[in-house]
Inverse folding.
């Protein structure tokens, strides 16, 4: 896993300073917030799993089917 992945035509990354997910549609030249700061868990790693993103977190494995806007426990 890594802290930045290519997923469905976007770059998606963990912003470790804000503990949130950000995305870029212009190869990383600018970044936009996708999920608000998580107070439930700390993001650690991301992976592209086809039609979903997987995130390793301080509370276990989570998945997102909407490009990281919301997360659900796996």
């Amino acid at each position: 896993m890594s802290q930045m992945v290519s997923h469905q035509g976007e770059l998606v990354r963990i912003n470790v300073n804000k503990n949130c997910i950000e995305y870029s549609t212009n190869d990383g030249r600018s970044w936009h917030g996708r999920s608000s700061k998580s107070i439930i868990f700390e993001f650690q790693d991301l992976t592209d799993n086809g039609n979903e993103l997987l995130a390793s977190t301080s509370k276990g494995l989570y998945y997102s089917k909407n490009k990281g806007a919301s997360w659900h426990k796996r």
